[in-house]
Write a structure and sequence with these properties.
The protein is α/β, with parallel strands linked by helices and 101 residues long. 37% of the residues lie in helices and 20% in strands. The chain is built from 3 helices and 5 strands; from the N terminus they run E-E-H-E-H-E-H-E.
Length: 101
């Protein structure tokens, strides 16, 4: 589940199966990768079926990591259920969300 680093962005694929792994190492890898490099942390949540407390915590920490380094975190392709949960919890106001359409 290591992030993929490009010249302008870091891509993190986050699905239900990735949540079974150590998220601390993911946060560490992202923080290391973004130093002096990519401007955007892209979190692809297309394979995520539900928004749990653990997911919310991870997303907020990724966003805080990005902000502390003057970067931007973007959630890409949330499912309808995840998008509804983001709206209901008002997290869509805090996090940058890109939908498929």
């Amino acid at each position: 589940m290591a992030p993929t680093t490009g010249s302008e962005q870091i891509l993190v694929n986050l699905g239900d199966e990735e949540l079974e792994h150590d998220l601390g190492s993911l946060l560490y890898d992202v923080a290391r990768s973004v130093q002096g490099g990519p401007r955007t942390i892209v979190v692809d949540v297309a394979r995520l079926t539900t928004l749990t407390r653990r997911v919310v915590g991870l997303l907020l920490r990724l966003d805080a990591t990005a902000r502390s380094r003057r970067r931007r975190a973007v959630l890409r392709h949330p499912s309808t259920a995840v998008e509804r949960a983001l709206i209901a919890s008002r997290l869509d106001r805090m996090l940058w969300v890109e939908t498929a359409g």
